[in-house]
Design brief:
single chain, alpha/beta, 30 helices, 5-stranded mixed β-barrel, 5-stranded mixed sheet, globular, 706 residues
């Protein structure tokens, strides 16, 4: 109950909401299902909030378990006090628990453990009583070894006592974090050909305030043996503080000896481990923020508006091996494949132009999707010239992960007779027709819309991105009769076996209604409950099957229509929508004996049956001509597409060889802490040329008009 209370406070929600989510998860409900169809139980918590409850509950349970284990282990040694137990139970982090357990932990062979074995612990205790009469030599006699060796052993024991003190460690950790600097220098004889890390050759920043992307850059530079990274802080202040906290009598003759033991503890035991802990914490926080950026970018990319009902030509650029072309009908089916060689070494521009124009005319191609890989801009120049006078436009499409898909088992099964490059051209074309359906075929980590992707915890990244894809797929829903197995694997409640049954069934005959799915062998009652609201059937005899209204709510929807004197067959008529849009929700929910969340969702779905919310987003920017860097002037207004959002700004495709950069400082006249507050991947922005570097072929942009 304490965990639930803690979670509720942290998230600023009611305990009842936390309990409801945990009960639903325990019963086998999925996060998308809970977020969409159990709003009345959870108080309309969204997917992100439900996931936080799931993850934090697991962490807090693990923390509680560790507390109980530590209390038990200390109790077994008969060393547990009431005060210590209270302190352990009050810990909020695993690190704090481990600090308190440290003095009682079974240690490997250490200098201190050997000294204790030699019977020198009583000597260490005498020294730490800070006697004022006598001498160190006198204290150290009678231990069956020479006094000098006895004192050395006692010093090691005292050093370990300081190191094991949870309060000292906590104070030191907080002091270094709040007051220290993180610095980096270029390593002697290090090679950094592209000067990737030049800003870090002589760098320092406050540990407390350093930006997360700088931590990841420092880590990478250190990993590549270019940088040496360290933490700097006032060791003397730490030493004096420990002396002040622990030395009982300033007149004692052991003060210098204890001071040396503290210095040894700091140098050998405390500071190296605390520095590691701080670096680890900085890295974990930085990774968490980088993963959040990746998630948000991926979400916006998956929500890119599809170009529907168009014939598309996918164009996979290359030099030596030729550019692969794939003409696709509006459903993504391949009409024709071809290869042209407009670039070096063959330079068959005239012949290539003829082939391209013939394909455009033959199939009435509306849009050309050009991959943004090798030879992309050269291909764009060629296409822009070749399509002059034709009613066709083009778009540069990110081909990140296209090669991964093209060589995958899935692509081979789909197009067994085609080469990898030809499959890639198909994938590029489909990415503009239906980005979501195509991108789900690729490992989300290969899509490349983030920062320091390979420097973060890959397991955490994979889980976060998979969650994001699942969230978006279920948010939009799928047409079960056209859905691939790749997209179905993200649908709530479905697994490999149930997907196989669905694919097998619809390969023979399309689903006519949702009831047919329920009857499939391998689709249990629970599976049906979890998945069915996200599976749409557009040609069903029951129009409710094309909405995201759950079958469990069909009786409520039907009763609602009866009370409004409407018939479901009129679902697409303006009068039908008009009547529903003026319903008194409060009164109607009483009449229907339902909750307002369910009723609002039912009304929305009846007014927008089968809606794909991506259709309401801005259109993809299509072009018919190219822009060259020599055409630019500072202050010039341009239109571009946000390709990637990172911590320090955003990269924009304005049609040049390299994307332009809008630095975070150029996004608003107000202070911006996070670029994601201003722009998102796929967004079309009006921007202004801020600076042109012809030598490096780089353009800095601004959202602020001068």
């Amino acid at each position: 109950m304490e965990i639930i209370n803690e979670l509720a406070k942290k998230m600023n929600i009611q305990e009842k909401q936390v309990e409801s989510v945990l009960n639903l998860l325990e019963s086998g409900a999925t996060i998308p299902f809970i977020a969409r169809y159990r709003k009345e139980v959870t108080g309309a918590l969204d997917e992100e909030q439900i996931r936080i409850i799931e993850q934090d509950y697991a962490y807090l349970c693990n923390l509680e378990k560790r507390k109980e284990d530590v209390i038990r282990l200390i109790l077994e040694k008969d060393l547990l006090t009431e005060e210590l137990e209270k302190e352990i139970r009050a810990c909020e982090k695993l690190t704090e628990v481990e600090d308190l357990y440290r003095p009682f932990k079974e240690k490997k062979k250490t200098k201190a453990s050997e000294a204790i074995k030699a019977g020198l612990e009583p000597l260490a205790k005498k020294i730490m009583s800070f006697p004022t009469t006598g001498s160190l030599e006198k204290l150290a006699t009678g231990y069956q070894i020479e006094p000098e060796k006895a004192l050395e052993g006692a010093g090691y024991i005292i050093s370990e006592w300081y190191s094991d003190n949870a309060y000292y460690r906590k104070w030191i950790r907080n002091y270094i974090f709040n007051n220290g600097l993180i610095t980096s220098k270029m390593k002697k004889n290090a090679v950094d050909e592209k000067k990737t890390y030049d800003m870090y050759y002589d760098f320092q920043d406050r540990i407390k305030y350093i930006k997360h992307y700088r931590i990841l850059a420092l880590n990478r530079g250190e990993e590549e043996n270019v940088l040496s990274v360290s933490l700097e802080y006032e060791k003397e202040i730490i030493l004096e503080n420990l002396k002040k906290k622990s030395i009982k009598d300033s007149q004692s003759f052991v003060i210098d000896f204890v001071t040396d033991a503290i210095k040894d503890a700091l140098k050998r035991l405390i500071l190296p481990s605390i520095e590691r802990e701080i670096r680890t914490e900085l890295t974990e926080n930085a990774e968490g923020m980088a993963i959040e950026t990746f998630k948000k970018n991926l979400e916006n990319l998956l929500l890119t508006k599809p170009i529907k009902n168009r014939v598309v030509l996918g164009f996979d650029p290359a030099f030596r091996t030729g550019c692969k072309l794939a003409v696709l009908n509006p459903f993504g089916e391949v009409l024709e494949i071809s290869t042209i060689y407009p670039h070096e070494p063959k330079n068959e521009k005239i012949k290539s132009c003829e082939i391209l124009r013939n394909l455009i005319n033959k199939y009435q191609v509306n849009v050309i999707a050009i991959g943004n890989g090798t030879a992309s801009r050269e291909s764009e120049m060629f296409v822009a010239e070749a399509i002059k006078g034709l009613n066709v436009k083009y778009n540069i499409v990110s081909e990140a992960g296209a090669s991964v898909y093209s060589a995958s088992k899935l692509a081979i099964e789909e197009f067994p007779d085609l080469t990898v490059e030809k499959r890639s051209a198909i994938s590029i074309g489909r990415r503009i027709q239906d980005p979501l359906s195509e991108l789900v075929k690729i490992d989300p980590k290969s899509i490349g819309v983030g920062e320091y992707q390979h420097d973060v915890n890959q397991k955490n990244l994979g889980e976060a991105l998979s969650f994001t894809v699942s969230k978006i797929v279920n948010e939009i829903g799928v047409n079960i009769n056209t859905a691939s197995s790749s997209i179905l694997k993200y649908i709530s409640g479905l697994n490999k076996k149930s997907i196989e049954k669905i694919m097998e069934y619809k390969s023979k005959t399309p689903f006519k209604n949702r009831e047919e799915i329920k009857k499939l062998k391998g689709i249990s009652e629970k599976t049906f409950e979890q998945c069915i609201g996200f599976l749409k059937i557009f040609d069903s005899e029951n129009p409710l099957d094309r909405t995201k209204i759950h079958p469990e709510s069909y009786p409520v929807a039907e009763k609602l229509l009866a009370l409004c004197h409407l018939e479901i067959k009129d679902i697409d008529k303006p009068d039908f929508k008009e009547t529903l849009s003026h319903i008194d929700i409060e009164k109607m929910q009483e009449d229907l004996k339902t909750d307002h969340y369910t009723l609002e969702d039912i009304i929305y779905e009846l007014i927008h049956p089968g809606l794909d919310q991506r259709d309401e987003l801005e259109n993809v920017l299509l072009k018919s001509d190219i822009l060259e860097i020599k055409d630019l002037k500072e202050g010039m207004e341009l239109e571009g597409t946000i390709r990637n959002v990172v911590s320090f700004g955003a990269f924009v495709d304005i049609g040049l060889h390299n994307d332009g950069l809008i630095h975070i400082s150029k996004m608003s006249t107000q202070y911006v802490s996070d670029p994601k507050e201003i722009v998102h991947v796929g967004q079309i922005v009006k921007c202004y040329v801020d600076h042109i570097d012809l030598e490096k072929e780089k353009v800095n942009l601004s959202l602020i008009k001068k």
